[in-house]
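User: Can you predict the 3D structure for this chain?
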Amino acid sequence: MYKRLNDIEKDLNVLRENGVQKGNEVGFKWDMLPFTVLLGKTTYIGAAPASGKTEIWFEFLINLSCNYGWNHIIYSPETGSAEEIYSELCYKFIGKPFIKTNGYEMTDREKLKATHFIDKHFIVVDPVDEDLTIDKFYELCDQIEIETKKTYHTTTIDPFNELTEEYVPSDLGREDKYLSRILGKVRKNARKSGRHNCIITHVRDQQVIQNKDGKRFFPMPTARDMAGGQVWFRKGLNILMIWRPPYGLVSEDGTMYEDNEVHINIAKAKPKGTAKKGTYKLFLDLQRYQYYMLDYKGERLYADRSTHTHQHEIEEVEKADFTKIAYERPDDCPF
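Assistant: Here is the predicted structure, written as structure tokens:
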């Protein structure tokens, strides 16, 4: 299939007038974290285990729900069972543990508020002892939209190696050919469905490095360190690499890394304008289970969840008696 300029002249003129469009911000302003999520596109996230890649992405999804009313489909078996995933999402939403723990957990009212919001915006795929290929996953996403009569804006596969591999003769038994074909499907599905497809994956074994003080650690991974090689880098649009620097290590600028510090490296940014390459620091509030950045004064900046288009509905929900309402309220976010 090909297109002549005359075939798309209307779209071309829109581009001329409006320029390249960013996606939606993920809770932090562009000048702090220049990364947006654009419908019809993809994000690939790579990191070593226990680096915080899932936590960060889950928080981005909640922020997108708060600020834009987006809905999400999540497949994340490494995070745990469906109830454990929903529990984590509720914790991140309210900023207090869902599970009862020494009296600090969320109140019953906060629990109802959290479960109402998360139930409205999230679906967890939990195929018990069932093989799930990339094709079956996206077919299931389509089925979920039909059955719930709701549009879902993002899908998440976390991690990629939890999918069942399904080689075809043209793959020649080679991982790179298989991966290239599958990631091509991920991108085509995003464009066809209008959803944003995210895949989270591990990095392969890295070489340990040693600094001048003799401290040994794994460096910030690159996109080519993703398990499966540089196919990810070639096929990906926006690529985020997550790194938890070793606590106590002195950075190049002479400061000591904190134990709650996480670095996001935007390794690839496509389409142009949706993100900006570079490395950005986030910090996890271990009590609230939410991330913050530091402004130029060193003050904490948590994600902005106040730009929801239905602000009047938030106020109604705040005044509501949650013990008397069913899950039929409009979109709500308490922050």
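The longest strand covers residues 261-268. The radius of gyration is 21 Å.
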